[in-house]
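User: Predict the structure for this protein chain, please.
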Amino acid sequence: MFPSSKIYRLSIFALVATALVLSGCEKTVDSSKPPAKQEEVTSNEDAIKFDFDGILNRKEVKNAPTFVEVAKQYGIDFQYYNDAREARYFFPEILGGGFACLDYDLDGWPDIYCTNGRGLPINSVDADYDDQLFRNLSGKTFSSSTIASHLSETRFSHGCAFGDLNADGFDDIAVGNFGGISVYLNQGDGTFSLTADSTFNADPTWSVCPIIADFNHDNIHDLLIVNYVQWNYEVPACTYDAIRGYCGPGEFEAARDYFFLNQGNGSFVECGDSFGFTAMGKGLASAALDWDHDLKCDLYIANDLVANFLYKIDAESTNHYSEVGSSAGVAVCVNGLNEASMSVTPADFDRNGWSDIFVTNYYKRKNTVYLNQESAHFQDASFSARTQATGELFLGFGAVTVDYDKDGWIDLFIGNGHVLGPEHNPNQLTNQILRNEDGVFTDVSQSGGEFFSEKTLSRGVATIDFDQDLDTDIIVNHLDRPVSLLRNDSQTKFKSVSLELCSPKHLPLEGSRIEITQDGKTQALPYFSGGSYFSDSERKWTIGLGDAQVIEKIVVYWKDGSVDTWTDLAAGCQWRFIPGKYIRL
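Assistant: Here is the predicted structure, written as structure tokens:
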């Protein structure tokens, strides 16, 4: 979220006051000193200047995106409460919240769980600031189901995740809070019950990003908690060019992540050390999926100011992971520097049949795309793919995929906003839509509708096709305004399909993937948990087919090793795949 003391050697992007690893109370940052000398990156200043001008001179595009903000119209009237106060700089205030887009009542329509903050220091009494659950009423509207569902989260919440922790067929919810985690078990009757397992809060910490997946491949969901830093109220502010602002994570020690192994009997055991989840990061997002096609669940964690992690399970093992981010090429950026990462977005952006990684980063840095060169060996392609050029004017938080023009090339939505405080410029930033054309991204936000002309302090972002019209809608959390529900009204002559994997016994599916082949290109669509900042999106792919009227070939690789192959499935349909068969919804 904040930059490190080492920055890129880009003279046209001199950082003003955001390049220190902070240490101490009321620290003063001397922005007059030149940036530390670094090795040249794989570009040159003229090339960067060209791309920079390209952002500033964005033009109208064909097949322009159109997203309309409809939250209140559809019954979602909610704003994250961070208790920000003038001249007070408590670190949790600027992190914000996220979403879990799950069908908690199994009526076939995705619902939305929204995390919320509350007063700092923590005040657990005021129910006005509890997390919120909105039930989807057949795509026509949402109704508040918080009270009816018995959900009552009374801590300062950030991220959330969903998955079936007790294998009863209904998705449960895990919430990361300042002060620990909460696990709500779905009772199957529209209500939830807070688990009494004290294991989850034996060592309360700043938990920001839970993720639910099967990490030991026993067909039971486990729970991994990404924790941030060991913050306390004793360091209230730092000073940048004589202006007070929020201190960054460099001020504090990293908080240890936790891994809770599901025992299958309603209890969990913390096994982080024995499973190899021991690297000390300052994580803000994570994604669990299979990056090397061994049908096992890998884990990527985006860290703030320290190297990012890629955990892969050891060969012939079901209970030990090794951190291989550096050797896989996804720990740091192209010139070897740590980044300040906020979000993880898995997708096959270049359509080579392997899942890539997109990571949002700090202001006047670059958003990074790591292209999978096969078998989880990645290359930082940010300059050639132009995520460097389209990201340096922004500070990205949540990022999600959306093929808005239905051409089969996966586009990106990025929620932006700064972190130093309202006295600093910039503070609010516009959000972005990046169009993917043959693996190269162009900022087409100015054509996206009124929402993209408004500056915000955006944080968590998730995808949800709430009206099931075969395009991807987006929900965005902000610090400075109510939640935005962006209905995708983009017009295109192309058709899309919705593809969903389903286990008849509601077993974990991380490790599975879909591959579709069109016009000689094979595209991987992984089943994954987590991803975007503090959020867990609806688990299905909505992908365009261009001019095609059918999917030429679709192959489903299930995590148990079975493979299903289908041909000529019609465009313009929702398809659900179950081992051995498919269903047209």
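The chain is about 5% helix and 35% strand.
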